[in-house]
Amino acid sequence: MTTHRCRFCDTPLRVTLADLGETPLANSYLPGPEAIAGERRFPLHVMVCMSCHLAQVTEAVPADAIFDHDYAYLSSFSSSWVAHAERYAEAMIPRFGLGAGSQVVEIASNDGYLLQHFVARRIPVLGVEPAGHAASLAEARGVPTRVAFFDGDQGHALRSEGFAADLIAANNVFAHVPDIRSFAAGFAALLKPQGVATFEFPHLLRLIEGAQFDTIYHEHYSYLSLLAVETVLGAVGLRVFDVEELPTHGGSLRVFACHEAADHAAGPGRDAVRAAEAAAGLATPAPYKAFAVKVAEVCAGLTGFLDRAAGEGKTVAAYGAAAKGNTLLNVAGVTSGIDFVVDRNPEKQGTLLPGSHIPVYDPAMLYRRKPGYVLILPWNLRAEIAADHAAIADWGGQFVVAVPELTVL
């Protein structure tokens, strides 16, 4: 048996969080049936280091195989996420006294969904984004963007070019990097002496509590607790001084970090999250070893529902060609029972979902086909989606979510 070693501290890995078998890349949508024969699958196994407590995939698919020019995820197609980004700007500007003389940098800036709010307030920005297509959309919004993978070398290079930052935002990217130590070092290099870096990421504690195994996919190299993040950041000279708990993505953390010698005082949120993780036993193997049962229950709930719907003679469609939905469908072995999926993103329309090969259409297809059930795959957006498409009730349609348990809304 292969002994896997921690990507951060090189300790042998002994504890499994989830072994989900082999699945295709969750954001690798197929252009048509002719591409099915060439579809590749990779092991999707998450283990937890009992030394630094970093949860991580054991097989690291090269980042440039995932985040290429045509990477399909675009942040601006979620109106609630864009609103979340604007609230972030409105909170950070007064808290840290940002203005025309400041520099804000976002790592993994996608299509400019966040930095546009700083641009609107005449604060200098720079986005760093590896997907060229998303970067070009950001530029069109007036967001200067560097097409690059961020790491320690990039941090030093950007600082030498005059981009030393008062604020660095990193939303849902800390988990997306294979070399997490070099990535963290880039923040230490780029931050001004009193600068602040904020990291938002789904909280491993909430993933475990909510059976959110569908948020596991190859581009998420790590699954983060505050326990692990403080260790990683501390290794490069950064200190966590505050933490906010957020409802996004099923329960996230926003971690505030600065240089060890910076003046920022500790906030109460940090100690509250530390205490919650300690109470849940995240420093021990127990909560990780119990997770497999939750995975099996969610999969059984979904397949049982599809069987019942077929028995009732009702059709099922899905909403949201989301990466988390692709993990759910592939791990549950769903290859039939869902007629089609709809998504607002035109980049995904006309494709097939990876693995399950369900066709993706414009949301207007819901109103043409009138399915009896609509399974919301990005369950973290269930309120937004259900409100936007409440009219499915006109023909008796009902929304369904599968995580943390099968629920007909």
Give me a quick take on this structure.
With 409 residues, this protein is α/β, with parallel strands linked by helices.
Could you list the spans in which at least 5 consecutive residues all have pLDDT below 50?
none
Overall mean pLDDT stands at: 94
| Number of helical elements | 14
Give the strand content. Answer: 15-25%
SS-based class: alpha/beta
Mind describing the biggest β-sheet? 7 strands, mixed
**C-alpha geometry:** globular
Question: Could you characterize what this model shows?
Answer:
The chain contains 14 helices and 17 strands. It is an alpha/beta fold. Strand 2 and strand 3 form a beta hairpin. Helix 5 packs parallel to helix 6.
Produce the secondary structure layout:
Elements: E1 15-23, E2 42-48, E3 55-57, H1 63-66, H2 79-95, E4 104-107, H3 115-119, E5 125-128, H4 132-140, E6 145-146, H5 152-160, E7 165-171, H6 180-190, E8 191-202, H7 204-209, E9 222-223, H8 226-234, E10 238-246, E11 252-259, H9 268-280, H10 286-289, H11 291-312, E12 316-319, H12 323-331, E13 341-342, E14 360-361, H13 364-369, E15 373-376, H14 382-388, E16 398-401, E17 407-408
Parallel strand pairs: 4-5, 4-7, 5-6, 7-8, 12-13, 12-15, 13-14, 15-16
Antiparallel strand pairs: 1-2, 2-3, 3-9, 8-11, 10-11, 16-17
Helix pairs in contact: 5-6
Give short descriptive properties of this protein.
single chain; 409 residues; alpha/beta; 6-stranded mixed β-sheet; 14 helices
